[in-house]
């Protein structure tokens, strides 16, 4: 998960930099297009990662834990399912936070994260 968090943060930062460059040049349409692409790519890419995690869930659990009791496997399975479900929301939050920071509204993502936590 730490790797995915870093990946989506880097993706969001890169997309926000591109949008910010367009914004700085007063190319509003290009800036909107960059933001639109960032949000769509982040959303679709994160959904793809979530689906892959769901598909290889047994491989992940067996690789991490090996032979474990059924109760532990069930709880690990539940935890992995919930964590994987949060991936698209995390990616979209990172994209949104980077975009809002680029346009000078860093307070909104901070307030959202405070409520979330």
Tell me about this structure.
The chain is mostly helical. The chain has one domain. Helix 2 packs antiparallel against helix 4 and helix 2 runs antiparallel to helix 5. The model has no long low-confidence stretch (mean pLDDT 88).
How are the elements arranged and paired?
Elements: H1 2-24, H2 28-55, H3 57-65, H4 70-85, H5 87-102, H6 107-116
Helix pairs in contact: 1-2, 1-5, 2-4, 2-5, 5-6
Number of helices: 6
Radius of gyration: 18 Å
Q: Which consecutive residue ranges, at least 5 long each, have pLDDT under 50? A: none
Strand tally = 0
Amino-to-carboxy terminus distance: 17 Å
Determine the strand fraction and express it as a percent band: under 5%
Mean pLDDT: 88
What structural class do you assign from the helix and strand content? mainly alpha
**Structural shape:** elongated
Q: What does the main sheet amount to?
A: none
Helix content bin: over 70%
Order of helices and strands: HHHHHH
Assembly state: single chain
Tally of separate domains: 1
What is shown here, in short?
The chain has 117 residues and is an all-alpha fold. Helices cover 87% and strands 0% of the residues. The longest helix has 28 residues, at 28-55.
């Amino acid at each position: 998960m730490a790797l995915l968090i870093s990946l989506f943060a880097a993706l969001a930062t890169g997309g926000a930099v591109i949008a910010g460059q367009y914004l700085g040049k007063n190319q509003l349409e290009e800036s909107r297009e960059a933001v639109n692409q960032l949000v769509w790519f982040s959303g679709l890419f994160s959904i793809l990662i979530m689906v892959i995690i769901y598909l290889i869930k047994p491989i992940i659990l067996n690789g991490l834990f090996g032979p474990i009791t059924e109760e532990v496997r069930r709880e690990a399975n539940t935890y992995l399912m919930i964590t994987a479900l949060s991936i698209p929301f995390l990616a979209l939050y990172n994209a949104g936070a980077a975009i809002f920071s680029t346009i000078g509204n860093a307070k909104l993502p901070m307030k959202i994260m405070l409520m979330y936590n």
